[in-house]
Structure formats: C-alpha cells, structure tokens
Design brief:
alpha/beta, 7-stranded parallel sheet, 11 helices, 50% helix
C-alpha cells in the first residue's frame, strides 16, 4: 500500500515539484492550497508526469481552516505517513524599517503554519509510533541574509522549533527533517522585489540583497532536486536532521559554521559593493558579483 503524504502549498514552486516528485515515486499525495482555482498548473504538470494529485483547500495561517482541512484529509485516508510543511512567504526589510505587524504576518505563516499542521497529524503518528515531518526552511534559516529580517527570523524560529520537535518525538520513532534550500528555479524570486527603504539609509543593503538573488536566479537549481531530498529524508535508513540543498545552500551553510561572529560582522561593514561581493565569495565560495 502506498504511503500518504500531505504537502502544504503544493500548487507552486518547491511544493509543486515535491508533490509531483513524490507522486511519481508511488506516494499518494494530498496537496493543500488556499484556493482550488490555483491548482491548474500543478495538475497539468502532474498529468504530464503521468501522475495525479489530490487537493484540499486549506490556509495554514488560520486555525479553523487547518482543522477543517485536516478533518477532510482524515475522512479519506486512515492516516498521514508524512507531512511536508512547505507553504511559506518571504519578507524583505531591514530591522529599523520593519513594522512588528510584518513580523507577525510572516511568523504566522512560516512558523505557526507548520505548528498547526504538525499538531493535526501527530496524534495519529504517535498512536502508530511512525511518521515523518519534513519542514522546508531555507538557507536563511541559519544564515542571516541582508535586508530580509522578518523572513530570516521566521526561518530561524522554524529551525529552532524543528530541533525541539525532533527530540520530543524521538520516543515514538517519528522522524523530523529540516530541508534548507538555497535558490531554486521558481517564480517566487522574480516577485521578490518589495523593499520598504523608507529612510533611504539602507540603499546598499537592499542593493546587495537583490544582487544576491539575481546571481542565484542565474544559477538556480531545479526545484525537483528539493523533492528528491524530501523523498530521501522520508525513506533513508540513516536520517539526518538537516539537509542543505540547491544553489548556495550547502556552501553557505557549511562555511558559516566555521566563521567567527567577528568575520560575519566585518563583512557588513564593507562600504564598496565590489569589495563586499569579493569578500562574500572568499568567505562562502559562492559568486554573487554582477
């Protein structure tokens, strides 16, 4: 019997690729989406791959929507074998210019959303003493990228929650994995152009932020690579807690671990963009210069 996997935000980007990849490898995939009108492209791509996806309308930012959505899921399947918490949003702003309301909005989706969905599947997983929860974080979950304060904070919080969850669930043999993508081929990055810059004092920071993403988009990896990592995290006999993947992910996170805090702060003090890009490449092994 095939395993049932729920993938949140399965209508686009990494979620769509992960859902189709898992379905192509024999999983029964139920995707969540905020509106059924947004499933057309995912269904078309799934059909082209010779598979089909099932859908449940659900907004991870809303308690009642998650409860109703998972009630529907549990009405058609005996249990959920794996949950992939993928749904999320970005958020650009330096800390001085970021209103607390934006932190709350981004945290509600990127942190509280996975919590809501995990709470919906965990009673059944504990009863069966089996299951996997995969939380899709980001390279910025351990790397405080410039001028994305609410997004960075939400992903660091997601990683902290996931670490605690992994230890809490160990007695029931429930696996927790954190997948940390760098930049993949996705329309979300082309849309990521908002920057408050209300004071005008942080032109340099936003410029470097967008150059980082421009370089990443030019070298972005296929989001199906993330889907393959999710499958591996579910199936492997030698599980790990964290899986860096995609452009910039393994390099940046690997080198940040060996870097001193003083070196990190000194990088931000460089006034010349060219000097910043050169030092970034030296420190992280990733070229972001134009």
């Amino acid at each position: 019997m095939s395993q049932t996997v729920v993938v949140t935000g399965a209508n686009s980007g990494i979620g769509r690729a992960t859902a189709i990849h898992l379905a192509s490898h024999g999983y029964r995939v139920i995707g969540t989406v905020r509106s059924m009108s947004k499933t057309t492209k995912a269904d078309s791509m799934a059909s082209d791959a010779g598979v089909s996806l099932e859908w449940v309308e659900l907004d991870v930012a809303d308690d009642e929507s998650v409860r109703v959505g998972f009630d529907r899921i549990h009405s058609v399947v005996d249990h959920v074998d794996a949950l992939v918490n993928n749904a999320g949003v970005g958020g650009n702003a330096v800390i001085e210019e970021c209103p607390p309301s934006l932190y709350q909005e981004v945290m509600n989706i990127n942190l509280c959303g996975p919590v809501r969905c995990a709470q919906a599947v965990l009673p059944s997983m504990r009863a069966r003493r089996a299951g996997t929860i995969v939380n899709v974080s980001s390279v910025v979950g351990r790397f405080a990228a410039l001028a994305q304060a609410p997004y960075v904070a939400s992903k660091w919080a997601l990683e902290a929650m996931s670490e605690g969850l992994a230890q809490e669930l160990a007695p029931w043999n429930i696996r927790v994995a954190i997948v940390e993508p760098g930049i993949t081929k996705s329309a979300i990055f082309a849309k990521n152009v908002d920057a408050p810059n209300s004071s005008g004092a942080y032109d340099m920071h936003y410029r470097r932020l967008f150059q980082f993403y421009a370089a990443g988009m030019a070298n972005a990896t296929n989001p199906f690579e993330v889907g393959a990592i999710v499958q591996h995290a579910i199936e492997t006999d030698t599980p790990r807690l964290r899986y860096p993947v995609s452009w910039g992910g393994p390099e940046i996170l690997g080198r940040r671990e060996t870097m001193s805090d003083a070196e990190w702060i000194a990088l931000g003090a460089l006034e010349s963009d060219d000097a910043y890009y050169a030092e970034f490449e030296r420190m992280f092994g990733v070229r972001i210069a134009p």
